[in-house]
Design brief:
Radius of gyration: 22 Å
Shape: flat
Number of helices: 10
GO molecular function: endonuclease activity
Oligomer: single chain
Protein name: CRISPR-associated endonuclease Cas1
Pfam family, one: Cas_Cas1
Order of helices and strands: EEEEEEHEEHHHHHHHHHEE
Cofactor: Mg(2+); Mn(2+)
Strand order of the largest sheet: 1-5-7-8
Distance between the termini: 41 Å
Subunit structure: Homodimer, forms a heterotetramer with a Cas2 homodimer.
Structural class: alpha/beta
């Protein structure tokens, strides 16, 4: 059968650079379809058009239905879809990543497998959480000790602020109801944050399992990155909910976290922080290789050589 059907996919040169795109657009309770080279979201209020050339990731929340044509357009435009809970507080599944290049994933693997580089990333993570401290010479053991003191102080400050009694973090991952109210709220809030971070990690093409501080779990990197935001997002929210608890700790906390992150700023910030952690300073913001459909062949001497060539040197 000759010819093709549907709108012509946008050419790679027509697409907006990822640094200039809308990082994430969240949709819920609507039908997602395609109109030419735009994604449409339809509900009882009408139709909204979203140009896919300017879209990084589409977060599909509860009540969304998406068509085959819409998913094809996202793929052609270098965008991705991630199925999430309400306001992104759960991660369920994802399509392809935003990255056309494996550069960020390779940087993650290179750093996690080199002891010196891995420690450097761990130090950067600590600096993001607790700025204005010189940790350039600290070991992992020293970082853990300093983090423990800082986190303990954060819990105490929120306890004093809200009047919620606090002794220590005490929970059983297999028995949510066994903890007291504040520990249940903390567990629920952190679970929401893990979902948000997981969505960003897979959208960028990174591995959720290659962690720098955490290790041995399929979500080790998720736990690493989520720790960057607990002090300012989930811990205050959990104490606020525990101080005015009038519903189940899980449900009320989830809704509170949803409201706290509804402007989407945490998504964009998370994407920037991941890139800053994994790429050398002089490479942050360099987008050319991110968007080019380039495949190389590995070479042990030069690193890589061009693909699509015949390297047979034999003569006839």
């Amino acid at each position: 059968m000759a010819g093709s059907f549907g709108a012509k996919p946008p050419d790679l040169t027509e697409l907006v650079r990822s640094e200039d795109r809308l990082s994430f657009v969240y949709l819920e309770r609507c039908v997602v379809h395609r109109d030419s080279n735009a994604i449409t979201a339809t509900d009882e209020r009408g139709v909204v058009h979203i140009p896919t050339a300017t879209l990084g990731a589409l977060l599909l929340g509860p009540g969304t239905r998406v068509t085959y044509a819409a998913m094809c357009l996202l793929a052609d435009s270098g965008s991705t879809a991630v199925w999430v809970g309400e306001r992104g507080v759960r991660y369920y599944a994802h399509g392809r990543s935003l990255a056309r290049s494996s550069r960020l994933l390779e940087a993650q693997a290179a750093r996690v497998s080199n002891q010196r580089l891995r420690l450097d990333v761990a130090r950067r993570m600590y600096t993001i959480r607790f700025p204005n401290e010189d940790v350039s010479m600290l070991t992992m053991q020293q970082l853990r000790g300093r983090e423990g003191a800082r986190v303990r102080r954060i819990y105490k400050e929120n306890s004093d602020r809200t009047g919620v009694a606090w002794s220590r973090r005490d929970y059983d991952p297999n028995d949510f109801g066994s903890g007291d109210a504040i520990n249940q709220c903390l567990s629920a809030a952190h679970a929401c944050l893990y979902g948000i971070v997981h969505s960003v990690i897979v959208a960028l093409g990174c591995s959720p399992g290659l962690g720098f501080v955490h290790t041995g779990h399929a979500r080790s990197f998720v736990y690493d990155v989520a720790d960057l935001y607990k002090a300012e997002v989930t811990i205050p929210v959990a104490f606020d909910v525990a101080a005015s608890l009038n519903d189940s700790p899980s449900g009320q906390t989830r809704r509170a976290v949803r409201d706290a992150v509804q402007n989407g700023a945490i998504l964009s910030r998370c994407a920037r922080d991941i890139r800053a952690l994994l790429l050398p300073d002089d490479e942050i913001g360099v987008e050319t290789e991110w968007e080019a459909d380039v495949v190389h062949l590995w070479d042990e001497a030069s690193g890589s050589v061009a693909a699509g060539q015949n390297y047979d040197t034999a003569t006839e």
